[in-house]
Design goal:
The complex is a heterodimer.
Chain A: H1 20-24, E1 31-46, E2 51-67, E3 71-75, H2 82-89, E4 97-102, E5 105-106, H3 112-121, E6 122-125, H4 139-149, H5 156-168, H6 185-197, E7 203-207, H7 215-232, E8 235-240, H8 243-249, E9 252-257, E10 260-266, H9 267-272, H10 277-285, E11 335-338, E12 341-343
Parallel strand pairs in A: 3-8, 3-9, 6-7, 7-8
Antiparallel strand pairs in A: 1-2, 1-4, 4-5, 9-10, 10-12, 11-12
Helix pairs in contact in A: 4-6, 5-6, 6-7
Chain B: E1 7-20, E2 23-36, E3 40-44, H1 51-58, E4 67-77, E5 83-85, H2 91-97, E6 102-105, H3 119-131, H4 135-148, H5 154-157, H6 167-179, E7 185-189, H7 197-214, E8 217-222, H8 225-231, E9 234-239, E10 242-248, H9 249-254, H10 259-267, E11 323-326, E12 329-331, H11 336-347
Parallel strand pairs in B: 3-8, 3-9, 6-7, 7-8
Antiparallel strand pairs in B: 1-2, 1-4, 4-5, 9-10, 10-12, 11-12
Classes of the chains: A alpha/beta, B alpha/beta.
Chain lengths: ~350, ~350
């Protein structure tokens, strides 16, 4: 697996496709997934006739592209819409609006039957290894289910394939006859990874795959994902709330806040040179595992506002220390401020 | 921050066992440590290490049966200046200590608040019980406490119910409740684990500020080494129900003397220095192999031996004692001197 290009075009800025970053990259990236103006609203019903009285705007106008073989982090706090975005991309929940173009096809327009072929290509690893495995199914059933649905590896071959997958994720083939409760959290997450790989997908959404694991186990699973991604050339959307974990594994990072994209940049660039005040605060809030470093941290005031009634203009302005009157007027556009570096902030005189 | 190093709490050889159908789980097996006045001690460990059972033992909140404090002593000097052994203290006296001398904040701010009482009632409850205040006075204290923990419009918020508040706000209420009687010791059991990083930063900042104002000691239980580095004066590392290392926070991070602590420190991603540079191979985390041990089947020797890359034959023979490595730093590893030598060579 070779390092692929940083496709940085956020969708609606078509000129950005020819940025120097793209030109300087070792190989031309082929876009595998393009998300354009993705929206997911959850209606709130009330009153006598259960009319829609409002919407939870969980994902609001999110656009980005993923190159083939690229690993991109989707980072944000609870309520940022990162998980909803991940699920809407896979149509595990139906998007309210926007396009999800996978390999040239807008999958949001496909029928359920047509969608099935694409599901083989697009898989997910869930956050909670305890809730995402059916306790009544053996490991072989769990991993084999998707193969059965897609008619892959019929007959004896299927068991061989399951055994192969188990060894690949660091478990033993004889584990296939066991039930989920016989495994620890880290081992269950490995089963979840084997299940996602069972149908040979090209794209995987990893939804906080290590957040529920013990610290000493997290590194094992991060390393496993990294190995598999490189070996199989997977394209991965890695959803996380922890910037420190994603920067190890990701080529680029997308930062979300209250349903919108705040900043997109290559991992190192985002960490060393954040351009959006929210990214700056997020980086500063993470505790540093070094007792000799005592830094001045930016403490954000208050909580994330309600997604039912998000602030006008920039959604972050209510907690932003750089906010000015103009921030309330228009929703800031995601614009390029450096090679492959995009931010949704109107102020260029800061950071 | 320490007041002449006066010891507030001393846990000596604590043993808390759970008698289950599958056998006896020795969750805490001979744990010894102390906390000085005004000090923050962090207890670090993974699930099953015994860190939460230790804190519940101090509060005498272990469900009995199946749990039982089988041995050891917990010596605590309360506000009255008298040292008491909490293990043998009658329940009625223990009740006077809980919430008054020692209070606790839990991981889940949602499940640890009562949904059918207003936050004012819940904060005021301890004040009325321990300080004999009237309902009206207790409400005033509750309002003051909410103001202290930085909740806007406390006069209004004091009449609200937990469901009307966000996660960070609820954790502030928990802190307000815990501090309402000016405790000498605050036990914080993973108080920020369920919170987002920006809210975590707010809460940690608040705890530090309040500690300076009130001068209490904090027993901080966590698995997050970043939080430890930020909050602790000293650190106790637990594994398999035992203390495996203890020392000053700077020493623990700079010169760990137990392979488990070293492994933990190496396995955490550090923001900034490891970010992937395009075109270069990605850096990898150094993982500790294997799984957290089953508390029913702990190995006969060192509990970390099956996962330890430095393990030798002698490690599986007997549980190693705690070795004093100097300067108040202890390690439960028979090879600790070799690590010290290796470090000297690296430095030289």
């Amino acid at each position: 697996m070779t390092r692929t290009v940083i496709t940085t075009d956020p969708g609606d800025v078509s000129v950005a496709a020819q940025t120097p970053a793209v030109a300087a990259a070792p190989q031309t990236a082929e876009t595998l997934l393009e998300v354009n103006n993705l929206q997911k609203y959850f209606p709130i019903r009330g009153g006598l006739f259960s009319r829609v009285v409002g919407n939870v705007k969980a994902v609001n106008d999110v656009s980005f592209k993923l190159g083939r073989g690229e690993v991109v982090g989707l980072v944000g706090e609870s309520g940022s819409g990162k998980t909803t975005a991940g699920r809407a991309i896979l149509r595990l929940i139906e998007p309210t609006g926007g396009q999800v173009i996978f390999n040239g096809t807008d999958i949001t327009r496909l029928s359920k039957a047509q969608m099935r072929d694409y599901r083989r290509e697009m898989q997910i690893i869930f956050q909670d290894p305890f809730a995402s495995l059916n306790p009544r199914m053996t490991v072989a059933d769990i991993i084999g289910e998707a193969m059965q649905i897609h008619n892959l590896h019929p007959g004896k071959e299927r068991l061989e394939r399951i055994a192969e997958l188990l060894s690949k994720v660091g478990l033993r083939p004889e584990h296939m006859r066991r039930y989920p409760h016989e495994f620890s959290g880290g081992q269950r997450q490995r089963i979840g990874i084997a299940r996602a790989l069972a149908v040979n997908p090209s794209f995987i959404v990893a939804d906080e795959p290590v957040s529920a694991l013990d610290v000493s186990i997290q590194a094992q699973v991060v390393n496993l994902l990294q190995d598999l991604q490189e070996e199989l050339g997977l394209t991965v959307l890695f959803i996380a709330h922890d910037l420190a974990v994603v920067e190890y594994i990701c080529d680029r990072i997308i930062v979300m806040y209250l349903g919108r994209v705040m900043e997109i940049a290559p991992s190192r660039e985002l960490n060393t040179n954040p351009k959006h005040p929210y990214t700056e605060a997020l980086l500063s809030a993470a505790p540093v595992p070094d007792p000799t470093v005592k830094r001045q941290r930016i403490i954000l005031e208050g909580d994330i506002p309600s997604p039912i009634n998000p602030p006008s203009g920039c959604v972050f302005r209510t907690r932003c220390r750089y906010a000015i009157d103009d921030c309330a007027k228009v929703v800031p556009e995601l614009r390029e401020v450096g090679p492959g570096h995009f931010k949704a902030c109107i102020r260029d005189d800061i950071l | 921050m320490t007041h002449q190093g006066e010891v507030l709490l001393a846990v000596n050889g604590l043993q808390t066992y759970f008698h289950t159908d599958d056998g006896v789980v020795k969750s805490v097996d001979g744990v010894t440590f102390h906390i000085k006045k005004g000090e923050t001690l962090a207890v670090v460990g993974e699930s099953g290490s015994g860190k939460s059972v230790t804190s519940l033992s101090i509060m005498r909140l272990i469900p009995m049966p199946p749990g039982k404090i089988e041995g050891g002593e917990i010596l605590f000097t309360g506000k009255d200046g008298v040292q008491k052994n909490l293990v043998t203290l009658p329940e009625a006296e223990m009740r006077r200590i809980r919430g008054n001398d020692i209070s606790m904040i839990f991981q889940e701010p949602m499940t640890s608040l009562n949904p059918v009482y207003t936050v004012g009632d819940q904060i005021g409850e301890a004040v009325m019980l321990h300080q004999g205040k009237s309902k009206r006075e207790a409400l005033e204290v509750a309002t003051e406490m909410l103001r202290l923990v930085g909740i806007p419009a406390p006069e209004k918020r004091v009449h609200e119910y937990p469901h009307q508040m966000s996660g960070g706000m609820r954790q502030r209420v928990m802190i307000a409740m815990a501090l309402s009687c000016n405790p000498a010791l605050l036990i914080a059991d993973e108080p920020t684990t369920a919170l987002d990083v920006t809210i975590q930063a707010q809460i940690l900042d608040l705890m530090r500020k309040l500690q300076q104002e009130i001068g209490m000691s904090i027993l901080f239980i966590t698995h997050n080494l970043g939080v430890v580095a930020e909050m602790a004066d000293r650190v106790v590392v637990m594994y398999g129900g035992r203390v495996v290392e203890e020392g000053d926070v700077v020493e623990i991070f700079k010169a760990p003397r137990h392979p488990y602590t070293m492994g933990l420190l190496n396995s955490i991603p550090r923001a900034g220095d490891a970010a992937h540079v395009p075109g270069q191979p990605k850096q990898r985390l150094e993982a500790i192999p294997g799984n957290v041990p089953n508390p029913l089947q702990l190995p006969p020797g060192c509990p970390f031996e099956p996962r330890c890359k430095f393990a030798i034959e002698a490690c599986s023979e007997a549980v190693p004692p705690l070795f004093d490595t100097g300067g108040g730093h202890v390690s439960r590893c028979i090879r600790w001197q070799e690590f010290e030598q290796a470090q000297h060579e690296v430095n030289a």
